[in-house]
Amino acid sequence: MTKLIQTAIQMRDKARAPYSNYKVGAALETVNGKIIGGCNIENSSFSLTNCAERTALFTAISEGYSDFKALAVSTDNGGSPCGACRQVIWELCGDIPVYICDADGLVSETTSAALLPKPFDELKLK
Ligand code: THU
């Protein structure tokens, strides 16, 4: 199992998910091989919950990383990134491989472009 996938699985242990009990871990790999993790962080005001993918991405950006080569997401049952995360992944990563995992390892491999066909992005603002 790759370190990226291992980190995504391990990040589930850090999730704060008292309302859904659906723990999600994510891990991003930079072009230089640095791996940055994230987990979902729920809030009693449900819409303020932050998904694992966006936690990883925002942590990475805030630490000065901006070039990413792969993303792994781990849930109990191999769930895929939500629509909001797909938009943010596309905006911040462009087209990269996305590894969807369950608690034991890789379930499927896709790409951020496949997850978000016909994206809205900065090109539409020109
Ligand atoms: N969740 C994520 O962390 N990532 C996704 O892409 C889908 C959903 C979280 C949000 C919430 O804490 C829990 O999973 C149930 O929706």
Structure commentary:
By secondary structure, this protein is an alpha+beta fold. The protein has a single domain, classed as Cytidine Deaminase, domain 2 (3-Layer(aba) Sandwich). It is built from four helices and five strands. A five-stranded mixed beta sheet has the order 2-1-3-4-5. The radius of gyration is 14 Å and the shape is globular. The mean pLDDT is 97. The structure holds tetrahydrodeoxyuridine. The site of tetrahydrodeoxyuridine has 13 residues, from helix 2.
> Strand content of the residues, in percent?
15-25%
In whole angstroms, the N-to-C terminal distance is: 42 Å
Any ligands, ions or cofactors bound here, and which?
tetrahydrodeoxyuridine
State the low-pLDDT regions, or none: none
Name the average pLDDT: 97
CATH architecture: 3-Layer(aba) Sandwich
Strand arrangement within the widest β-sheet reads 2-1-3-4-5
The assigned structural class equals: alpha+beta
Rg, Cα atoms, Å: 14 Å
- The name of the CATH superfamily reads Cytidine Deaminase, domain 2
Strand segment count = 5
What count of structural domains? 1
For the biggest sheet, the summary is:
5 strands, mixed
